[in-house]
Amino acid sequence: MRISTTARVMWGGALLIAPQALLRAGAAAGGDASRAAITVARVLGARHLLQAAVTTAAPTPRVVAFGAVVDSLHAVQQLTLAVVSPRWRAAALVDTAIAVALAAAPASGRRGKPARRPV
Predict the structure, then answer these.
(1) I want to staple 49 with a disulfide (CB 3.0 to 4.6 A). Which of 12, 64, 80, 113 is the partner?
(2) How far apart are CA 73 and CA 118, in angstroms?
């Protein structure tokens, strides 16, 4: 399993298991998260786990590229949230950084030395 996939599984699992703690840490003034925010965090966690499963089961260039697009769109959405919501700005910026890192991971995996062909 790739490091980015492991990171995605860990982040998705954390969002599913402990959304309140993550949201509380990211909210301004440490306020409690609403039921809606907790539900959104859990849905996002489930999406990360599903994306990790699909990418692991079928790591084709098309599937990997689609996952990067989904992560990029999520990063844009989180930047928008950071602009319009002072309460969720810190959490949105952390999630933006995670989404950008996950979106960029497939591209960074293609760099480096080309595979050696057997003789």
Answers:
(1) 12
(2) 40
